[in-house]
Amino acid sequence: MPPDEAILETHELTKEFQGFVAVSGLDLRVRRGSIHALIGPNGAGKTTVFNLLTRFLPATSGSIVYRGEDVTRLEPAEVARRGLVRSFQISAVFPNLTVLENVRVALQRRLKTSFHFWKSQDSLEVLHPRALELLAAVDLEAHAHTVTVELPYGRKRALELATTLALEPDLILLDEPTQGMGHEDVGRVVELIRRVSAGRTVLMVEHNLSVVADLSETITVLARGSVLAEGTYAEVSRDPAVLEAYIGAEA
To answer: Are strands 218-223 and 35-39 parallel, antiparallel or unpaired?
Structure first.
């Protein structure tokens, strides 16, 4: 697939809940190798879109095409196996395991022993080098033997990203990756996202517009479940319809 082609597309994607239309006729195109942001005011339908893309919710109508194949009716696990992985929602993070053990659990699916917790420790040693590589990718090498519950909040988010990378995704869906973080942690996570996006595609929902401006090449603005605007941050931030959606007609 050439780099300018879409890795993910939706066509007239719609989700209704007992007469309420949460997502309406969504046409979304995410270019391979890009960082693409999905933003909008509260209630715009962003989380519902993520749930549709990962098949946690069935679409009422429309289609989802991933890497040229229609995945609209696949099971969530099959979508993840194909490389479309939602971070911070399905990551295997266990508070009473060490950081390294968490990543090794995520890597176990490659050995087809994901739920074989009775296997001996020695049987997992083959995963040790790759687990350390993933921890290095998110700056957690020094915390490999720390019990996860003892990590600061921002470091836990970094661990969740490492466990997501263990699933070898082509497309990572990041759902509010900097939510609840202080300024220092936000800066760290932004750099981690920039680093792990090399060779991958990222679609993220994010309320922090400075993060969106810093990372995103393309921004899709949703309002009432439909696309309100799309373009670069400079383009959408000047759009009168976007300004009205965020801060009201008076502003």
So the answer is: parallel
My answer on whether 73 and 111 are in the same domain is no
Residue 55, domain CATH: 3.40.50.300
Task: Give yes or no: residues 94 and 76 share one domain.
Answer: no
Cα 220 to Cα 38: distance, rounded to the nearest angstrom: 5
Encode burial over 157-170: b for 16+ CB neighbours within 10 A, e otherwise.
bbbbbbbbbbbebb
Angstrom distances, CA of residue 47 to CA of 75, 89, 226: 18, 11, 13
Asked if 76 and 130 sit in the same domain, the reply is: no
Quick check: is 185 in a domain?
Answer: no
Same domain, 9 and 78: yes
The tokens for 160 are: 């969740």
Per-residue pLDDT of 62-80, as tens digits, reads 999 999 999 999 999 999 9
Tell me whether residue 112 is exposed, middle or buried, using C-beta atoms within 10 angstroms of its C-beta: 0 to 12, 13 to 18, 19 or more: exposed
pTM for this one?
0.88
